[in-house]
Amino acid sequence: MMDILARISKSLIAGEEEKVGELTDAAITQGVPPKQILDEGLIAAMAVVGDRFKAHEIFLPDVLLAAKAMYAGMDRLRPLLVTQDLPTRGTVVLGSVQGDLHDIGKNLVGIMLKGAGFEVIDLGNDVAPEKFLEAVEQHRVQVIGMSALLTTTMPVMKTVVEMVKEKGLTGRVKVIVGGAPVDADFARRIDADAYGFDAANAVEKVKSLTGVS
Amino acid sequence: MTFDVDHVVPDRAAVLELQGIPPETGLPDHLEGLYAAALRLLTENAAPAAVLADVSKPRFGTIYQGEGNNEHRTPVADIFPAAERLALFAVTMGPQLERAVRACFDANDFAVGSMLDSVASASTDRAADLVQARFRAQLDRRGLLRSDTGILRYSPGYCGWHISGQRRLFEYLEPEQIGISLRDSYLMQPLKSISGVLIAGPRDIHDIADNYDCCESCDDHGCRERIQSLFAEQAADKTRQSE
Lengths: 213, 243
Ligand code: B1M
Description:
The complex is a heterodimer. Chain A contains nine helices and five strands.
């Protein structure tokens, strides 16, 4: 059993999408519990990828190839996982704020968060403040993540933080912000809980916001 | 004006920089396929187009003030009064390219999508270089180019020129004719678009100090490299003349 999980991990780290799919199928056939394949095969391997990226041993495209391979494995597992087995590290609602159509950075954050086992509700771009709050009400969201690439759209982030306060959600729902013109100082000034300077850093911050080690 | 896509294929180094890969490292072999796929998608989906229009100094002065949000002291405000010719421009790679990027992400082809996004960004800069070359050629044809003429471009959103300055720039230039629109947030659609002013005059006018308020918050001080290349151009001209 260990062997097949190790092989899944190895292929995932190498970004071998087809192999990860095949090996996941093989692991399922061998009777390895789907949750174990997910945690010890896919998520564990993605953590190694994240660490190597942070250590500058591999580059962004390698991370994205690994993420695609992970999704191939996840696709096989999803029908077999009962709801309580789905990634339970927390749920993050993500979006580029109103007026902003930039979404590559936000997408990268979403891909990395999923890779780390978070459930991600991606609202897309040009997201009105109330949409974030609606998503919080509809799903069990722990974190709101907002991205902005222009100084002119950054104020929307403040609006969302204020709405979180008004709804009495402060503390229960954390807010993380990021994007080229955003910095830690701005995050502090608008009372956001965290600032992520890149996708890998966003994952670390979300982990610490949700108490995941 | 439109450009052939082959003419806006970006430098590999510029793409790698956007991908966070140090140029000295180069692209690892196993990623070459991604790069090739991104270039192919660029060729299939880009439709580079630009508008370029001369503008007088007084008129530019009004446009530059924009909505009154510029920083107190800015490089462009110091440079343009000494210029000889000014032109406004806007350039776009067209709407199809960002759809192609999105399609890659929708298909979980994240690495290709991200590489294509970087290729598209760098090629937008290449297209702006071509507009600048076109402006230079126009000046040359009109006998307005001198041996010490230096041309550089400046854009709203950089160097203390507030991004809201695009409103007046758009009113003058009407880039809607090539499909660029400006949203209330001053975001241009399509995303892969650049707007700005081309300033032609004695090279020295561009040789600004690096001590404006805006320089403090600037990440890369990219102006230094641009100024250097302007003077390198001059040195190369001199060498050619003496040969
Ligand atoms: C939820 O938690 C989180 C946590 C982390 C989060 C997060 C959320 N969201 C993002 N992150 C973080 O993680 C991601 C992955 O690592 C990162 O996401 P990003 O989205 O930042 O990163 C992308 C994956 C890659 N990054 C990018 O693609 C942006 C890089 C920079 C250099 C840049 C580029 C490449 C471009 N641009 Co321009 N551009 C700049 C950028 C400066 C910079 N240093 O970032 C920026 C954004 N641009 C700017 C400007 C001004 C402009 N650009 C323009 C044009 C262009 C190009 C076409 C040349 C090109 C592509 C634009 C595009 N985005 O598609 C114009 C606008 C275009 C438009 N459509 O409106 C124009 C207005 C210039 C002009 N007048 O033409 C500046 C905005 C400043 C402002 N005042 O708002 C700018 C910050 C540069 C600067 N001045 O320093 C992190 O930010």
